[in-house]
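Example 3.2
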Amino acid sequence: MKAVHFGAGNIGRGFIGKLLSDANVAVTFADVDKPLVDQLSHDQSYKVKVVGSQCQVDTVTHVTAVNSASQDVIDRIVYTDLVTTAVGPNVLDIIAKTIATGLTQRFEANNEKSLNIIACENMVRGTTHLKNEVYTHLDEQYHARADALVGFVDSAVDRIVPPSEAANDPLEVTVESFSEWIVDKQQFKGDIPVIEGMEMTDNLMAFVERKLFTLNTGHIMTAYLGALKGHETVRDAIEDNEIREQVKAAMQESGEVLIKRYGFDREVHNAYIEKILGRFANPYLRDEIDRVGRQPIRKLGKNDRLIKPLLGTIEYGTENKTLLKGIAAAFMYTNESDPQAVELQTSLKEKGLRPTLAHYTGIDADSKEAKTIETIFLQLS
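Structure, written as tokens:
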């Protein structure tokens, strides 16, 4: 079995690429980073440091790489069995045209084999979004064939992959031992590939929101609250008892939405929250606050990790005071090397908190939630 994986960064190599390779899938990474592509295609292997209660180093083999802006990647799509991505939500739109070109040439080559495409991104229904973008670049004469032969499979992914500290080996990547890759089994075309670590479900949104409302909400709360107190890493922040209690409270607030929406068992979900807190405290991971906190505008989006659970608490009339504090803390985040953080701070200075909040989150500037966030923001300032 062959796969083309867009994104040869830490997540691509340490998470999806590793799972595929471990399942004896021949992986071709596609990326625009020429030195990275050259070294991957030369070495055809790399090391993954897996850290949990213990630390081990695995070697991923039988991989190669091509430039994602070249004809090479299109040639691979023509005959591959699987396409996966770990490029970040903003890059999906860019690679959509390449995938559409690959599909066009695949159909012109009369390849009638099924192809499944899975976007492994931190976004809700990322593959469905990618499909819509691909179809805008795909000639209408091929839409029916794509509908019949190409499965666009939504997924939920969860693994913490901080920057590697192996200065002498640019390909080595560090990952936590925990990983979760859940896919919507109803969206596959043809045979579903058997890949250890890829789990099937027919209720994907429950797992997408469980991850978004727990791991992502807790992670970003830890980062923004940690930044306020001058902590440098997620582990430093979560070992601050005051922050830990607030992060836990926020996850319980978002968890109440999940319990009401999907019928999750309260005790089981509380145990899941404790597992997440333990992952943040992993002594082997140096997960920097600025890595987690970057791109605050995206993370304040209405379908992302702070606002979406908040909207759920409003829908069900449940507690949300800690989530509101986390949102206020997000507007306090500063990072001169992050264009989104700079843009957000500029808007705050020019327009004030509530107009800025309304613009970036969609929350009504005159709502009680907006007024509470403003009050907390002023207290934090």
